[in-house]
Structures are given as structure tokens and as C-alpha cells.
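Sequence only, no structure available. Ideas?
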Amino acid sequence: MIRIATFTDISSITNLKQKMFKEVGMEDLLRDDFVQVVDKIYEELYVLEKAIHFVVERNNEIIACAGAFIKEDIPYCFYKENQYGFIGDVYVDPKFRNQGYARKLTNEVLEWFSKREIHTIRLLASDNARKLYKTLGFTETDQMILRR
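Reply:
I predicted one. C-alpha cells follow.
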């Protein structure tokens, strides 16, 4: 049911990612060349083993995904543990929601991080997903944002 995505799955994952941005009302933030950029970056990250996606497939179509990304950006690169995990691209096609796919996929991602000894894991949660992530042990932080 759940499997690791391959390079040939990246375009399907990008499509789901685009749907996710649209659902949360953030599609207008995306670059015009969004699809090409995401595909290229994900291919590079897969090769470097800095990213992986887990997918659920039904009738040869990917209906859900979750991504794991190892990041080393500022200020975390200055810490003793200079890497952290980022969970992204958690999306389930609306027709298949409330069947536990997001939880199962997120648990796969958490296991992948655990095997790589990544102890700090971050994500951005939609309002609808906060309850799920809290049940998995995530806590809300003091992070703030300003958009001008």
C-alpha cells in the first residue's frame, strides 16, 4: 500500500503539491515555473539522499504522499545538531481522506528520519492538520511570520 517514490513519481508528487497549495489558498505564491523547479530540485535531493517521498497508490495513480527533507540552513547549521528534518508535501486526495493515510505516511517519514538520527523535525501545518500532528507528538512553536 505505502511505497517509496521513485524518480518517475516526482511529477505526480508535484501535481499533488500544487493541489495542496491551491487548497490552502496559497497558489498565488507559486512561481510561474513551479513545476519545473520542484521537479528539478526533488531529483537533485533524491540523488543526494536528502529527500524521500512515501506514496499511496490506487489503480496506478498516486492518491497520497508525504515528503521528508534533511535541511541544514541558518541558524540550525550553527547548532551541535546542524541538521533537522522537515516534513512537507503531506497531501491526500480529497476522495481518499479520513482513512488514515496522512498518519501512516507521516509515520513512515518519522521512521526514515529516525534511521538517519535526525532528532529535530519541523513542519508547516494547515489548520485541519494540526490535530493529527499533535497526536504524533508535535508541539506548536513561537515561530512568527510577516508578509508585506
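The chain has a mean pLDDT of 95.
Hope that gets you unstuck.
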